[in-house]
Design brief:
single chain; 848 residues; elongated; alpha+beta
């Protein structure tokens, strides 16, 4: 059911919007667009300034959500940081929705340097969402139930609104009872979420209620309706419209809020006045804060890095926040809508006279058509800007430049041309931010984005039909050209956009379907062998097993190794290859997974790439520590190495010899190695693993050298070597011994390998990871650390984690952390998916 709702939600949004369009059309059908423009023009400037003041007060109260969340989390953040993060977050999410993504990212940008973890920020966003719901439920249920007589006489079928109010009231009472009874935290997908105290809950209700009242006052002031409608009645209608807008799942309830409000209030105040007030409300409450947020975000980033700018001015944009492309994406979407709406509305009489006296008719006709097409293309390219595609930058520069010219030529719309020119000037310095190689034809378009585009196109088409409804339709309208022919130009532009949209949709539907995962061919394995030997870590040799899918970078110098489950694509370790290719590669990986309806995670990643995964919106969970022995200081001298020295002497007395087989020698001894491997598996009553662990495969072993322990020429034990060309690290994968090998043979092999690696000039010997070791034991440590420590300390009989740590400790390694990077609230599901991949299925999880 959850997956079904996820799929149908975008289509439900379109249905809500169509219903809202019908309501708007029904309420405005006897009024012309000129009446709305006149009402907007006649709106007193004092109302606008008062509305702006109320918007400012509203955003200040919204910051109270964050203050309460930080109090709930027992965190102390400077007030100016909270005000800044709150304003930027709400200015963006009010226009785009996606509070979990945009809100979390913005707060992480400002709060994480001050001590909040990723989990804290997830809880903060969750708390804020709950605060908003509490405020809506409280105010809606109280106002609706108090205003029942008014509703019954004003709103058809008010019974349903009353029923919803009673449901909300019952839910509030139930929540209050739960606060009084339940003392233990809730567990949401493995995350402990303590219930807030009663005092915090009351503060949540009051803060959210004040915020909603202030928001409603902005619209109430613009209506100028004190004499026509008491505020208490107005607030009831506002809340009903707001709730319907929330149900629509459209960002900001666009269209649905307006349609509902027009329908509910249409009999009280003239419809053109309501429409003008709603337009002003959108501008004051939504668009102006968004533009201001974009400017503030840019200034904040410049200020944060001004010292670097003095020395490295060329690196300016490399330092900008990842949120900047998101802001530009929103602004470009609004620019596209602006051009489409402009092309759907009549040109003023003064502009028509200027055009008639100045420009040839052909220029006017072509400019109108091209300006509308550019508006449609900006909606598409805005998605590519969000994804930082390299082709998006020149496309946006060209589209904004031409858009500014054509919108001026089509109707002397200098205000729109000025907006587009300003956008172009702001956009020009951002070239370095668009680095991901991809074609614009391959833009990843989610269902939500497509539904939003459909809503914009349907809305602007309705605006055009409404604007020219007085023009009687005739077939020859399509071929008539005149300076006064705005309706004719609108029809031609709409048809052209529809054809272009259908053509693009057909291309996307009929092109070859991308393969979910790509298992490397034999030729690619040869190519991978060269890449992994130049990697930063020896574990990248897992690629040579050929059991994992591979995503190559554009240069084919970097790649991601990954496994696929039903809901997740899991990268194995850090991306392999040059650092310059890795950032674009992980985003391409995320998009590829998104097209298949999956989320991404990365297993056993190092501390060196953490910012890369945090920028993707993933959270980090420590999985254990990796043991690395510094070979330059390794030796058998001294008291602390006496145990190792005794092992070496004992095996020397037994006549056991150490040898490293070259690749051609491995092929000659592969049958003997296979017999030892089979005997080891039988002795351990184990089965081969996968994904993060190697398994016996002849082709795999023949690609690398193998260390062996011999007695009288017979191989007793072996371990295959992972080596890097730069001698930074050497490690092993399979460690197997036969039934006739003496006890301690693997320790002997380790000692011999480290001494050999030191002679060969290697810096580190990697002993691999000790799972769940090194987790924090503080009483206030996260839940995962507490669970991991219990398993580590008390699960020895099953998992041998503590024994493995102790065994590796005898070589005196340096321990380095390894992490799981996973989507918020999905860590348990990701761990289960990884365990299944490693064990060869869920049945293998309970077997060795």
């Amino acid at each position: 059911m959850k997956e079904y709702l996820k799929r149908v939600r975008p289509y439900l949004s379109i249905l809500f919007f169509l219903a809202a369009l019908y309501l708007v059309h029904h309420e405005l059908k006897v009024h012309g667009i000129g009446e709305i423009a006149r009402a907007l023009h006649e709106m007193p400037r004092s109302w606008l300034f008062l509305g702006l003041g109320l918007v400012a007060a509203n955003y200040l109260v919204l910051a109270g959500y964050d203050f309460l969340a930080l109090r709930y989390l027992d965190k102390n953040i400077p007030h100016r940081k909270v005000l800044l993060a709150s304003f930027l977050s709400y200015a963006i999410t009010n226009n785009t929705g996606y509070a979990w993504i945009a809100g979390s990212s913005m707060r992480y940008r400002f709060y994480s340097p001050l001590g909040l973890s990723g989990l804290d920020i997830v809880k903060c966003v969750m708390f804020n969402s709950w605060t908003n719901l509490l405020g809506i439920a409280t105010l809606y249920s109280v106002m609706v139930l108090a205003g029942l007589p008014f509703l019954a006489s004003t709103v058809p079928h008010a019974f349903w609104l009353q029923a919803l109010a009673w449901v909300m009231m019952a839910a509030m009472v139930g929540y209050g009872v739960a606060l009084g009874i339940r003392k233990s935290p809730l567990v949401v997908r493995g995350m402990e979420v303590p219930l807030p105290t009663v005092s915090i809950t009351v503060a949540q209700m009051l803060t959210a209620s004040i915020e909603l009242v202030l928001g409603s006052l902005v619209l109430y002031v613009l209506l100028g309706s004190p004499a026509q409608l008491p505020f208490s009645h107005f607030l009831v209608l506002y809340l009903v419209s707001l709730v319907l807008g929330l149900f629509s799942q459209i960002p900001g309830g666009l269209g649905v809020f307006e349609g509902s409000f027009l329908f509910l209030l249409g009999g009280t105040i003239p419809a053109p006045v309501i429409a003008a007030a709603l337009l002003g409300y959108r501008i004051l409450y939504y668009f102006l804060p968004l533009i201001l947020a974009g400017i503030i975000l840019l200034l904040v980033e410049l200020r944060a890095y001004r010292r670097n700018l003095q020395e490295h001015a060329a690196d300016l944009l490399a330092l900008l926040s990842p949120m900047v492309p998101h802001v530009f994406s929103i602004l470009l979407t609004l620019s596209g809508v602006l051009l489409l709406v402009s092309g759907s509305t009549p040109t003023s009489h003064g502009a028509l006279k200027w055009l008639n006296d100045t420009l040839p008719l052909g220029f006017v006709e072509a400019s109108h058509l091209l300006a509308s097409l550019i508006g449609f293309l900006l909606l598409l390219v805005a998605r590519a800007v969000r994804q930082r595609l390299d082709a998006a930058y020149p496309a946006v520069v060209i589209l904004l430049s031409l858009g500014a010219v054509f919108t001026f030529l089509k109707g002397f719309d200098w205000q729109e041309a000025l907006v587009l020119t300003g956008m172009l000037i702001l956009f020009l310095p951002t070239r370095p931010m668009f680095y991901r190689k991809s074609s614009l034809l391959d833009i990843s378009l989610s269902r939500s984005w497509l539904s939003l585009m459909a809503i914009f196109l349907l809305g602007t088409f309705w605006i055009g039909m409404y604007s020219y409804r007085h023009v009687e339709y005739r077939h020859d309208l399509w071929w008539q050209f005149s300076y006064e022919g705005d309706a004719h130009r609108f029809l031609r532009a709409s048809l052209t956009i529809a054809v272009l949209a259908v053509a693009f949709a057909m291309y996307r539907l009929l092109r070859p379907v991308s393969v979910a995962g790509h298992i490397p061919t034999a030729e690619e394995l040869n190519e991978l062998a060269l890449v992994v030997r130049k990697a930063d870590e020896a574990q990248s040799h897992l690629a040579l097993l050929g059991d994992k899918s591979v995503l190559w970078s554009e240069s084919r110098q970097a790649c991601i190794l990954y496994g696929i489950t039903r809901n997740f694509w899991v990268g194995m370790g850090d991306p392999v290859g040059p650092l310059a290719d890795q950032e674009s590669l992980v985003w391409a990986f995320k998009e590829k997974a998104n097209r298949q309806g999956a989320e991404v995670a990365f297993y056993q990643v190092s501390k060196n790439r953490l910012p890369l995964f945090l920028d993707m919106g993933l959270i980090l969970v420590k999985m254990g520590e990796e043991a690395r022995v510094p070979l330059e200081a390794f030796g058998l001298e001294g008291g602390k190495r006496s145990g190792l020295r005794q092992t070496q002497k004992r095996f020397a007395k037994l006549g056991i010899e150490f040898e490293v087989l070259e690749r051609d020698q491995v092929a000659a001894h592969i049958k003997a190695l296979k017999q030892i491997s089979d005997a080891w598996l039988e002795q351990k009553k184990a089965k081969e693993k996968g994904f993060s662990l190697g398994y016996f495969d002849e082709a795999y072993l023949c690609r690398m050298r193998v260390a062996v322990a011999r007695l009288n020429g017979e191989i007793l034990a072996f371990a295959n070597l992972w080596e890097l060309d730069d001698k930074e690290e050497v490690s092993i994968d399979l460690m197997r011994y036969g039934a006739n090998a003496p006890a301690g043979v693997m320790e002997y092999l380790f000692i011999s390998l480290m001494l050999w690696g030191k002679e060969q000039g290697y810096r580190w010997f990697n002993l691999g990871m000790a799972p769940l070791s090194g987790l924090e034991k503080h009483p206030l440590a996260p839940l995962w650390h507490k669970i991991g420590n219990i398993i580590f300390e008390h699960g020895e009989s099953l998992y041998h984690f503590e024994g493995l740590r102790a065994y590796k400790e005898k070589f005196h390694p340096e321990w380095e952390p390894r992490y799981l990077a996973a989507p918020p609230l999905k860590v348990p599901s990701v761990l289960l998916a990884i365990t299944s991949m490693v064990s060869g299925g869920l049945t293998g999880v309970i077997r060795k």
